[in-house]
Amino acid sequence: MPVITTIDDLKRLHERRVPRMFYDYAESGSWTEQTFRENTTDFEQIRLRQRVAVDMSGRSTKTQMIGQDVAMPVALAPVGLTGMQHADGEIKAARAAEAFGVPFTLSTMSINSIEDVAEATTKPFWFQLYTMRDEDYVARLIQRAKDAKCSALVITLDLQILGQRHKDLKNGLSAPPKLTAKTLANLATKWSWGIGMMGAKRRSFGNIVGHVHGVDDTANLGAWTAEQFDPTLDWGKIAKLKEQWGGKVILKGILDADDARMALKVGADAIIVSNHGGRQLDGAISSIRALPSILEAVGDQIEVHLDSGIRSGQDVLKAMAMGAKGTYIGRAFIYGLGAMGQAGVTSALEVIHKELDLSMALCGETSVAGLGKHNLLIPKGFEGDWQP
Ligand SMILES: Cc1cc2nc3c(=O)[nH]c(=O)nc-3n(C[C@H](O)[C@H](O)[C@H](O)COP(=O)(O)O)c2cc1C
């Protein structure tokens, strides 16, 4: 077992062990990847304020997200095709999250289905919804998530159409991979991935294939998304979805204070400040820079969460100290999954937890509730002085 001390260690193993097409799928942003890059480099701009001679015993990273107890304020973000990074990837990630005590969010575009994950876990997980043109299908999907006792519906708002990621087009991304000379040559070097996949429960989209009338080929993700995703999604439809669900709703993909106010108006329980990990609107602001203005607009009335760019416990600390009430990791857990399956996801969570715990101590804090702007050194003009 390799010694893992950082998320980067897991990323290197992920790259070595998983077919290029799926590594690239995780490791890309849209177009020039400016937003993808700035999600991480903007975190680096913020410094932590070191404090000394503070009793650091009895520390805890425990807190709550949407009223649910969490071992630390870090949920696993919904990630499509997780089951292509490792056989039965969604089941493995959900089990790791459950054992660790953090929420797992299953993507609509997962390989394992809602029912597969429910069967393999004992506690409720969260379900992420993409809205499709086919309203009957969406209604059935919501019912399936209810039947599986999912405890929150995460509705993603920033992907009605797909931002272009050049590598996916060049690699011919598909699930399962199409066997061309190029993919076969690459697969030949990833034998442990291949052996795992031979025994996998599923190799295509478990929530879709067999559940959408007339759709039996989802292999070409780009074409399928263009055809099926609902370009007419608006706030009225979001309010209806909330009603249909009847439980806790988290709106994902908010990057603007005006949209945050709309989310509040439709009665969401929480919002996720997110730019989809830099995979949608290239040129959009990083999530951590967008956070202060959104907190100012709605932070005292709705729970504000954040994702995009978190690669360490120090990043989690920065987001929480700025005022977020929870964070999500996408790639950080995917690197772990691709590297070592369930043990790799656990390892990613352990790395982040240890970094958060020790950094809190070195900042002189013993609880998540105690974190605040007083822990941060934020450069002047960090939010940007943008002309509308
Ligand atoms: C490979 C990949 C697939 C993703 N698929 C989905 C998805 O199906 N649904 C969704 O709402 N977000 C999806 N996202 C976005 C994540 O939920 C999350 O917003 C993003 O990964 C956060 O950025 P980070 O990877 O820097 O942590 C995906 C992200 C990645 C990297």
TrEMBL record:
<protein>
    <submittedName>
        <fullName>L-lactate dehydrogenase</fullName>
        <ecNumber>1.1.-.-</ecNumber>
    </submittedName>
</protein>
<feature type="binding site">
    <location>
        <position position="130"/>
    </location>
    <ligand>
        <name>FMN</name>
    </ligand>
</feature>
<dbReference type="GO" id="GO:0010181">
    <property type="term" value="F:FMN binding"/>
</dbReference>
<dbReference type="InterPro" id="IPR000262">
    <property type="entry name" value="FMN-dep_DH"/>
</dbReference>
<dbReference type="GO" id="GO:0005886">
    <property type="term" value="C:plasma membrane"/>
</dbReference>
<dbReference type="GO" id="GO:0016614">
    <property type="term" value="F:oxidoreductase activity, acting on CH-OH group of donors"/>
</dbReference>
<feature type="binding site">
    <location>
        <position position="252"/>
    </location>
    <ligand>
        <name>FMN</name>
    </ligand>
</feature>
<comment type="similarity">
    <text>Belongs to the FMN-dependent alpha-hydroxy acid dehydrogenase family.</text>
</comment>
<feature type="binding site">
    <location>
        <begin position="307"/>
        <end position="311"/>
    </location>
    <ligand>
        <name>FMN</name>
    </ligand>
</feature>
<keyword id="KW-0560">Oxidoreductase</keyword>
<feature type="binding site">
    <location>
        <begin position="330"/>
        <end position="331"/>
    </location>
    <ligand>
        <name>FMN</name>
    </ligand>
</feature>
<dbReference type="InterPro" id="IPR008259">
    <property type="entry name" value="FMN_hydac_DH_AS"/>
</dbReference>
<feature type="binding site">
    <location>
        <begin position="78"/>
        <end position="80"/>
    </location>
    <ligand>
        <name>FMN</name>
    </ligand>
</feature>
<feature type="binding site">
    <location>
        <position position="276"/>
    </location>
    <ligand>
        <name>glyoxylate</name>
    </ligand>
</feature>
<dbReference type="InterPro" id="IPR013785">
    <property type="entry name" value="Aldolase_TIM"/>
</dbReference>
<feature type="domain" description="FMN hydroxy acid dehydrogenase">
    <location>
        <begin position="1"/>
        <end position="381"/>
    </location>
</feature>
<keyword id="KW-0285">Flavoprotein</keyword>
<dbReference type="InterPro" id="IPR012133">
    <property type="entry name" value="Alpha-hydoxy_acid_DH_FMN"/>
</dbReference>
<feature type="binding site">
    <location>
        <position position="279"/>
    </location>
    <ligand>
        <name>glyoxylate</name>
    </ligand>
</feature>
<feature type="binding site">
    <location>
        <position position="165"/>
    </location>
    <ligand>
        <name>glyoxylate</name>
    </ligand>
</feature>
<dbReference type="Pfam" id="PF01070">
    <property type="entry name" value="FMN_dh"/>
</dbReference>
<feature type="active site" description="Proton acceptor">
    <location>
        <position position="276"/>
    </location>
</feature>
<feature type="binding site">
    <location>
        <position position="156"/>
    </location>
    <ligand>
        <name>FMN</name>
    </ligand>
</feature>
<dbReference type="InterPro" id="IPR037396">
    <property type="entry name" value="FMN_HAD"/>
</dbReference>
<feature type="binding site">
    <location>
        <position position="274"/>
    </location>
    <ligand>
        <name>FMN</name>
    </ligand>
</feature>
<keyword id="KW-0288">FMN</keyword>
<feature type="binding site">
    <location>
        <position position="128"/>
    </location>
    <ligand>
        <name>FMN</name>
    </ligand>
</feature>
<feature type="binding site">
    <location>
        <position position="25"/>
    </location>
    <ligand>
        <name>glyoxylate</name>
    </ligand>
</feature>
<feature type="binding site">
    <location>
        <position position="107"/>
    </location>
    <ligand>
        <name>FMN</name>
    </ligand>
</feature>
